[in-house]
Amino acid sequence: MPVESGSSAAARQAKQKRKSHSLSIRRTNSTEQDRSGLQRDMLEGQSSDNLESFMRLEDSKLPLSLRSNLLDLFSQIEREFENLYIENLELRREIETLNDRLAAEGQTFEGADLAKGALKTKASHSTSQLSQKLKTTYKASTSKIVSSFKATTSRAVCQLVREYVGHRDGIWDLSVTRTQPVVLGTASADHTAMLWSIETGKCLLKYTGHQGSVNSIKFHPTEQMALTASGDQTAHIWRYMVQLPTPQPVADISQQTPCEDDVDFSDKDEADGEVEGPNDCPSVRVATTTLRSHQGVVIAADWLVGGKQVVTASWDRAANLYDVETSELVHSLTGHDQELTHCCTHPTQRLVVTSSRDTTFRLWDFRDPSIHSVNVFQGHTDTVTSAVFTVGDNVVSGSDDRTVKVWDLKNMRSPIATIRTDSAVNRISVSVNQKIIALPHDNRQVRLFDMSGVRLARLPRSNRQGHRRMVCCSAWCEDNTSCNLFTCGFDRQAIGWNINIPALLQEK
Fold first, then answer.
1. CA–CA dist 394, 485 (Å, integer)
2. Nearest to 214, CA basis, from 189, 185, 181
3. pTM for this structure?
4. Which of 351, 452, 474, 497 could be joined to 485 by an S-S link, Cβ 3.0–4.6 Å?
5. What DSSP line would sit under 273-306, residue for residue?
6. pLDDT tens, position by position, 336-356
7. What is the pLDDT of residues 85-133, one digit of tens each?
8. Cβ neighbours of residue 347 under 8 Å, at least 6 residues apart?
9. Angstrom distances, CA of residue 212 to CA of 230, 318, 355
10. Are 404 and 417 in contact (CB under 8 A)?
């Protein structure tokens, strides 16, 4: 007598169980239970014959022709799902083919000089890039998905032009003069501020009047004066006079680096020794004006429109408004619950925005001398690291919650755009003409977005170029033909970039 296999016995028991269950459904004469039982049997993959026999068992009042029509419709649905399943398998095979091709192209591009481990890393990096692109373009059309894998030669160019090296500690802030001669200013934790020739990278002047970290530097709109804020609880206004050196030939930028081609390197590649500062750089040691009303670190300062007043932001939770000519305190702007992190003034109106660790930023209006209104905005969930005005009617705020938000001054109830990133955002800047937002990150990256929140580019970090530590600040200078964007960080250097803005916007 043949022995019945375990699988056959299990199948027979399951079939008997389903049959008894169907008979019990008929005896209860419940339409709802009939319907649910039918759905369960269909999901278990019964054939059309089994389904027909099941329908014959139930006490149905439907005509035979209608029941046959239902069976035919269910069969069509099953075929449609089968076709979709086959298409899915074909797409998976195509993705695997593209994955292999992309990894192979990466190996060919690097050449035979790479070790096997490096090739494996490159292939892994290519695979992760492909996976990320598939995730972001899943809802797009098939043509867009295919185009994302094609190698494009018309990418926007973001070229590193010059490095400004000389500070002995991290650089917190930088700014570009608004008057001739146009120079770059940097504020460093080494207690100094420096002025640099943009074209040559040479230090032109060093300010040594502070006794603490210099946290901010801003230039007067019409005169050769600088405003610096420091950890020594003061803000200084000092005059400068510089003479630009003879320009040197600009480095060859014919080897254009696409913004997305990023080959990372370890922090240990950075030299452990301290960077020697320029020895032949002239110094300014005494401030023209010293502002002393704060009881804590002065973290930022800026000039109001016209240059007759300045505003400072401090860790004592207050922002102070001073008269430049008399050095007197005009207003103390209080209300923040925690330390301030930044302050910024409107380029054409008497408006001030202050940022704080209390997750808010405040808009102070001094346009009417008799009314000094203030508005509080709670759009972030962590420290607001900076909030800046644009030339139009917008405010852009960045935060440690890894978001950047664009606000309309006419309606500040909710942001008009939100940019979500993978790292905390530091002091941002917005270009005057094209309104491109430059985002410096804690993770050493610098990304560019437009005002609607669309990502335009990421500055390159290949061939040991780019920042090796946290990027603290960014500043645009669109009038300069060689360097129109500057960044600085805790790797003790500032970098001048050439951003091809027309190509950048054309790629959008």
1. 21
2. 189
3. 0.68
4. 497
5. SPPPPPSS--EE-S-SEEE---SS-EEEEEEPTT
6. 999 999 999 999 999 999 999
7. 898 888 888 888 888 888 776 544 433 443 444 434 444 555 555 555 5
8. 305, 389, 391
9. 6, 19, 22
10. no
